[in-house]
Amino acid sequence: MPAVSKGDGMRGLAVFISDIRNCKSKEAEIKRINKELANIRSKFKGDKALDGYSKKKYVCKLLFIFLLGHDIDFGHMEAVNLLSSNRYTEKQIGYLFISVLVNSNSELIRLINNAIKNDLASRNPTFMGLALHCIANVGSREMAEAFAGEIPKILVAGDTMDSVKQSAALCLLRLYRASPDLVPMGDWTSRVVHLLNDQHLGVVTAATSLITTLAQKNPEEFKTSVSLAVSRLSRIVTSASTDLQDYTYYFVPAPWLSVKLLRLLQCYPPPDPAVRGRLTECLETILNKAQEPPKSKKVQHSNAKNAVLFEAISLIIHHDSEPNLLVRACNQLGQFLQHRETNLRYLALESMCTLASSEFSHEAVKTHIDTVINALKTERDVSVRQRAVDLLYAMCDRSNAQQIVAEMLSYLETADYSIREEIVLKVAILAEKYAVDYTWYVDTILNLIRIAGDYVSEEVWYRVIQIVINRDDVQGYAAKTVFEALQAPACHENLVKVGGYILGEFGNLIAGDPRSSPLIQFDLLHSKFHLCSVPTRALLLSTYIKFVNLFPEVKTTIQDVLRSDSQLKNADVELQQRAVEYLRLSSVASTDILATVLEEMPPFPERESSILAKLKKKKGPSTVTDLEEAKRERSVDVNGAPEPAPASASAASTPSPSADLLGLGAAPPAPTGPPPSAGGLLVDVFSDSASAVAPLAPGSEDNFARFVCKNNGVLFENQLLQIGLKSEFRQNLGRMFIFYGNKTSTQFLNFTPTLICADDLQANLNLQTKPVDPTVDGGAQVQQVVNIECVSDFTEAPVLNIQFRYGGTFQNVSVKLPITLNKFFQPTEMASQDFFQRWKQLSNPQQEVQSIFKAKHPMDTEITKAKLLLGRSSDLGQHSLKKLILTLQTLWALASSTPKPPRLDACCVWSRICKLRCTGSRCAQARTLFPRGYVTYCRSSFNPMQAVGLCVLFPCVSATLGDHTAHSTMEHLSTCTSSLGPGRGWDTKGLLTGTTAGLPVQGGPGSMKSRQPVVQSTN
Amino acid sequence: MPLLVLPQIRFILIQNRAGKTRLAKWYMQFDDDEKQKLIEEVHAVVTVRDAKHTNFVEFRNFKIIYRRYAGLYFCICVDVSDNNLAYLEAIHNFVEVLNEYFHNVCELDLVFNFYKVYTVVDEMFLAGEIRETSQTKVLKQLLMLQSLE
């Protein structure tokens, strides 16, 4: 019986450790340590050469001091000296010191490597073991360079001891992980695979880890491991519990090795029929054993047995091809759901979650719904309840959604704070995804806010508004329900937001009922006003102005509220400005104008639910188990960049199929029919005709689209390479700096970036550049300058192809270079007379171009316009709003250089912007961006009626414009509106005078501030 | 493919109830501050759990498989996709070896013989993988090494 006594061998060390343990205070400990350090230092410096034992003892003390958390700045040399000792104990302490205090001191590394080399060559298995463990623990690049060639030889040599083989296998694994380029595959690989047949199960255990890792990267090379692993596994699972002697653990034969073999098999698809039959037998045996009475009552026995069982189930799920096995697995897990061991219940819930995504076992999983719901209610460990929530989410479909959502909601009342937000997101997603009846959806979300308002993130309440606005069958119900919910004496602020928004849009639908008359609605909302935060109050102000339009009878009440000092002189700039603008708007505008400006919000474009995106971000993709998603994850991505998600696949319910009109983020449409002409130009610039170029890196389309409206940023990135861009354009010329960053620590060789222009692009776009240095050092960045000349208009973008060698492998990456026509657009200053003169000249039939093409989706003008407007910003976030505006500016630039139809679109877009402004974005940046839009729009507007619409809003913006601009814009407005004639009943002159007179109204503490963000700050 | 670049086991920790570290074995590069932070975090998540709870805790992007023996917590941090029960029993296997080797192991054995504990760990776990699972084989090897002193 091996037993060791306290610190035998090194009495001094034991005494020192005792001293430290007896220290009463931190100070005493530090004092004792300093004393010891001084002692050791003097011993190391002393004239007398230390013997091996003393050296070992002092080095070991230093190590102990280091492990207590103190810095050690000497003793490394003595530790290295110990490596060349002939005594095992001295060598061991030396290697331990080196492994724990890794030091990149190059002088020492050379000495260490030398000692390791000697030990590896010593043929003494103990010394070889120590050396290999040291390499495996340190695993530095220097060591890989020195020993990556040697270790495979040791591993496969016939005369190597088994224990050395074990260490060598894992040592090689460590080096391969750290520096795969330094461990080239070779003759040894096939011999390593055959270690799966080794007599010694310890060798097989170590080798299986190595093979699993290598097989992930080189599946072809290690394909033969599948049949070997299956036969090994088969021998283990069919063996009697005593056959494997040392490797039987509590009556379970080689449990860890079985787990490793099953994991190795998960690197591959289901094997050929012959092997597959044998594997299926193994898996059945494992499932059968789970049903047998236990051979021991000890938990170790059941744990070891179930470790193998769960891994077998993972493999069955991974293959996802044997319905029989899948259903058996599901039944087995079903039994575990009620097991008395918490661990097993937890693991069964977790494992079932993945089973729920298989089409073969989805129904079988659903039969356990009651048990899972019970787990949610009774489990003591929050992590188990969380798994139950995950499983309910995974097993949810149309048939059980109502029940599951109801259970989750009721659990939410008592749920742990740590998981509330996630449950809220899940409930919101399920309610939307499986809503047959949207009244149920609205009820669910309002309940959600009532129960866990604090955990309802913006995405959730934005989404309910998006859905209510898009579905007119639910609007009346939504208005009625929020109205009732708001009656509660204390309601959550998120409810006020939703209520404010919905009543502002659809309050009219319930105004017929005297119990919810306009005045009652207003009073109800306003009773919450003072308790709310600034953003909510801002939203409510927008609701009030919408009420002015919906209910003329409450206009004076609302004006009184807006006029009160608490609004008009509010210290908050946003609130003050809204009050001023809305008051002004309500007093100067006619009902017609109000109706136009404050019209109902247009439908939001359908796309992936922002909530789903949030949940994915929160939990990582693996926990959002959708059938498609599970499949998608499995596909291996060669370029290392994330796969672009299909535009709206598996997204939340999409009542009508529609595409994002701008097509900025969408996959390129298949090239169809003739090239679209000017009529479709707006769309053309953004669409891709990728068919003509080499295969592009995944994700590059997305990146490309992001560069349409910006000039700098990261164009491409994978595990090896990052490509950054900086570009500037002036008139027809441009210059682009491309930065290639080597993210690895290894040199790129033969690095050659090439610019490829398709044939017709060559004539229109002139690109000039110099070749770059063919080697890029690890961690270094090289720069390439491209001079660009736009000769004529073009649609396709050039492609940047990069080829280089990394380690032993050839890399080839293609990305589209974001040089688009809009980069060369120029604004033109033009007086209105000149403009109209020119406009009127465009009357020849050949100056108007029209082309007819088949739309891919049903079209509706209003929806189209709305999409243009809200194409990328329906979640109303600051960032996306800014992006929207930038996009619109580009559109505008396009519009001013093209004939009628696109321009009309852009005009429409701008007027929509005004509206967005009115309906409650709290985006401050937007405020600084709008005036420029107004001005541009007003100056060249050809539709007097729209110009009039702007007149009304003019006072709101004029405050943020410079005097000169305001004046010229006003003049132009005057020209436009005068052409309306008396029939429209507009006293334009009076209106405009009123506008100027209105300017000084902005008093109060915020007024200076509100003048400051002027037009220039567009970027 | 997280398995490729990362070891299965990120680290092994043995801590007592007061949070004193009795063994820390790292299989990934962390700097010293990060190690200290990890040690404290692990202690915080593990010690609040009671016996009715599972032996698994989600931890950052990993999970901790742990088991308590008297006043000592043995924790193994692995990838979330790893086999919980296999590592739970790997801990027990390790503890049984320590118990045999130190003849009824107690916390003080680990303190005074810290340099030997590293040897035991290296025999059973290497490069973040399970190296040897046979108690007989490990103990035979340890006994042989002991005789070399």
Would you write up a description of this structure?
Chain A: Residues 668-677 have a biased composition (Pro residues). The complex is a heterodimer of chains A (1019) and B (149). In chain A, a hairpin with a 2-residue loop joins β4 (721-730) and β5 (733-742). With 1019 residues, chain A is an alpha+beta fold. Chain A is 57% helix and 7% strand. The N and C termini of chain A lie far apart (77 Å). Chain A has a five-stranded antiparallel β-sheet. With 149 residues, chain B is α+β, with helices and mostly antiparallel strands. In chain B, β6 (125-126) and β7 form a beta hairpin. Chain B is globular. Chain B starts with a helix and ends with a helix. The model of chain B has no long low-confidence stretch (mean pLDDT 92). At the A-B interface, α1, α3, α5, α7 and α10 of A face α1, β3, α3, α4 and α5 of B.
Write the layout of secondary structure elements.
The complex is a heterodimer of chains A (1019) and B (149).
Chain A (H helix, E strand, L loop, with lengths): L10 H12 L3 H20 L6 H16 L8 H8 L4 H13 L5 H16 L3 H14 L2 H7 L2 H7 L5 H17 L9 H6 L7 H17 L7 H14 L9 E2 L2 E2 L1 H11 L7 H19 L7 H21 L3 H14 L5 H14 L6 H5 L2 H10 L3 H14 L5 H12 L4 H17 L4 H15 L5 H13 L1 H15 L6 H14 L11 H12 L4 H17 L4 H9 L1 H4 L4 H16 L2 H7 L12 H10 L7 H8 L46 H4 L15 H7 L6 E5 L3 E10 L2 E10 L5 E9 L2 H6 E5 L11 E10 L8 E8 L2 E8 L15 H10 L19 H10 L7 H19 L3 H19 L5 H17 L3 H15 L4 H16 L9 H11 L8 H5 L8
Antiparallel strand pairs in A: 1-2, 3-4, 4-5, 5-8, 6-9, 7-8, 9-10
Chain B lengths: L1 H4 L3 E8 L4 E6 L5 H16 L8 E4 L2 E8 L2 E8 L4 H18 L5 H6 L1 H11 E2 L2 E2 L4 H13 L2
Antiparallel strand pairs in B: 1-2, 1-5, 3-4, 4-5, 6-7
